[in-house]
Amino acid sequence: MPVKRVETCGEVAKLLHFLTTKEAVYITGATFDINGGLLMS
């Protein structure tokens, strides 16, 4: 769902922090588009 705004540095930092946790152990070779859904519309 597009949010129609640019993400903040804090939101990007939360993603990066999550990717360093044990919960993200099975996420490999993924690409995360950080664009607020602008490419979807």
From TrEMBL:
Cited InterPro entries: NAD(P)-bd_dom_sf (IPR036291)
Q: How is this protein named in the record?
A: SDR family oxidoreductase
**Origin organism of this chain?**
Siminovitchia acidinfaciens
